[in-house]
Amino acid sequence: MTGTSVLAQFRAWLRENCPLIDKNDKFNANYIGATTTEYTIRTAGDRHRYDITGKDSPTYNLTFEARLPFGAAVAANIDAADFFDKLASWLNVQNRIRNWPEIDGYMVNKMTASNAGLINQADAGTARYQLQISLEMEEL
Questions:
Q1: Of 2, 39, 40, 67, which residue is least crowded by CB atoms under 10 Å?
Q2: What is the pTM of this model?
Q3: Residue 8's CB: how many other CB atoms inside 10 A?
Q4: Cα–Cα distance, 31 to 48 (Å, whole number)
Q5: Which of 39, 50, 79, 65 lies closest to 133 in space, CA to CA?
Q6: Whole-angstrom Cα distance, residue 63 to residue 46?
Q7: pLDDT tens digit sequence for 90-128
Q8: Could you give the CA distance from residue 28 to residue 40 in angstroms, rounded to a whole number?
Q9: Which residues lie below 8 Å from residue 51, measured CB to CB, with a gap of 6+?
């Protein structure tokens, strides 16, 4: 299994299922442009454990990023923080009800979201916010 496959399958699941992701906004993979209100999901590393039979139990770390309005106007900044709080909550609910993405050859056992809404780049008009996501899986 490659990280790209996990990335593509998680991106498709999130875009299709999450009511917070506007289907009219651009949602890329490993790339985010300069357009206001744009999303991307990118790989952030993986770790694999193998049992004595060679069965893989990987953890994939992903980062969801969004470019959103940012600046001196407080309302836009609060809206961005609310978006990320709601996204983290939605992902945590999906974990509790075991509504996980389907990953070819693997079963997801746990999904976590953390550090919602960290700003990793900002200028006078937009900022890039991020949320870290971890998928713990086991090979079928």
A1: 2
A2: 0.91
A3: 15
A4: 25
A5: 65
A6: 12
A7: 999 999 999 999 999 999 999 999 999 999 999 889 999
A8: 5
A9: 57
Q: Concatenated DSSP letters for the chain?
A: --HHHHHHHHHHHHHHH-TTS-TTSEEEES---SSSSEEEEEEEEEEEEE-TT--EEEEEEEEEEEEEE-SS-HHHHHHHHHHHHHHHHHHHHHHHTT-PPPBTTEEEEEEEEEEEEEEEEE-SSEEEEEEEEEEEEEE-
Residue 11: which of 45, 48, 44, 39 has the closest Cα? Answer: 39
Residue 124's pLDDT is 86
Neighbours of 22 (CB within 10 A): 12
Tokens representing residue 32 in the block: 């985010």
